[in-house]
C-alpha cells in the first residue's frame, strides 16, 4: 500500500514538473503604433479631425445663439407679462434640449465614423500581416498591449509599418 502511494506521488510530480516546449514562432505587434504612425492611418485621423473641427465650430455657433437668447430672455423678464415669460422660458428649454441632443448625436456620429474608418484600415492591413506571417514562418502574432514582457527581437512593428506605408495608399 505504501509503495503504491509513493509511486503515485512520483508519477504526479513527474507529470506536473515536465517542461513545455513549443516549436511555434510567436511574435508581437504594436497595433496602436501602426495606427498612430502609418501614413494611411494618419490621413484617416486627419480626415476625422477635420470633420470634428467643423462640427465643433457649428456647435459653438449654435451654443452662442442659445447664450444670446438666454441673455435676451433675462433682459425681458421685467418687461413682459409673467405668462408670456413662462412661454418663452419653455420654448428656450426646448431649444436647449434639442441643442444638447444634437450635440450628443454629433459626438456619437463622429466617434462611430472614426471607429468604422479605423476598422476598415485594420481590415486592409490584416492580409498584409498574414502575408508577412507566411513569408517568415510565423505561427502567432500577439498585440503588444497584451504582453507583459518579451524580447525586442520578437517585435515586428517596424516591419509591418514599412509594409503598410508602402502598400496602402
Average pLDDT score = 88
- Which geometry do the CA atoms define? elongated
Give the C-alpha Rg: 30 Å
Helix content: over 70%
For the largest beta-sheet, the strand count, sense and barrel status come to: 2 strands, parallel
Widest sheet: strand ordering: 1-2
How many beta strands in the DSSP annotation?
2
Order of helices and strands: HEHHHEH
Q: How does the helix and strand content classify structurally?
A: mainly alpha
CA-CA gap between termini: 74 Å
Strand content: under 5%
Total of DSSP H or I helical runs spanning 4+ residues:
5
Contiguous runs where pLDDT drops below 50 for at least 5 residues: none
3D architecture notes:
This protein has helices at 2-16, 31-37, 39-75, 82-135, 157-167; strands at 26-29, 140-143. The chain is mostly helical. Strands 1-2 form a two-stranded parallel ribbon. The mean pLDDT is 88.
Notable characteristics:
two-stranded parallel ribbon, 169 residues, mainly alpha, 5 helices
Brief overview:
The protein contains five helices and two strands.
Helices and strands in order, then pairings?
Elements lengths: L1 H15 L9 E4 L1 H7 L1 H37 L6 H54 L4 E4 L13 H11 L2
Parallel strand pairs: 1-2
Amino acid at each position: 500500500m505504501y509503495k503504491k502511494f509513493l509511486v503515485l506521488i512520483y508519477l504526479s510530480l513527474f507529470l506536473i514538473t515536465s517542461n513545455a516546449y513549443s516549436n511555434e514562432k510567436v511574435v508581437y505587434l504594436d497595433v496602436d503604433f501602426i495606427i498612430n504612425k502609418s501614413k494611411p492611418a494618419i490621413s484617416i485621423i486627419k480626415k476625422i479631425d477635420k470633420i470634428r473641427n467643423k462640427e465643433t465650430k457649428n456647435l459653438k455657433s449654435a451654443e452662442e445663439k442659445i447664450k444670446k437668447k438666454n441673455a435676451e430672455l433675462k433682459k425681458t423678464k421685467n418687461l413682459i407679462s409673467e405668462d408670456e415669460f413662462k412661454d418663452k422660458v419653455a420654448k428656450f428649454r426646448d431649444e436647449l434640449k434639442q441643442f444638447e441632443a444634437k450635440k450628443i448625436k454629433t459626438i456619437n456620429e463622429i466617434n462611430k465614423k472614426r471607429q468604422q474608418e479605423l476598422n476598415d484600415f485594420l481590415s486592409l492591413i490584416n492580409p498584409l500581416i498574414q502575408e508577412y506571417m507566411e513569408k517568415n514562418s510565423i505561427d502567432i502574432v500577439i498585440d503588444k498591449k497584451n504582453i507583459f514582457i518579451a524580447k525586442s527581437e520578437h517585435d515586428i512593428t517596424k516591419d509591418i509599418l514599412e509594409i503598410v506605408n508602402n502598400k496602402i495608399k
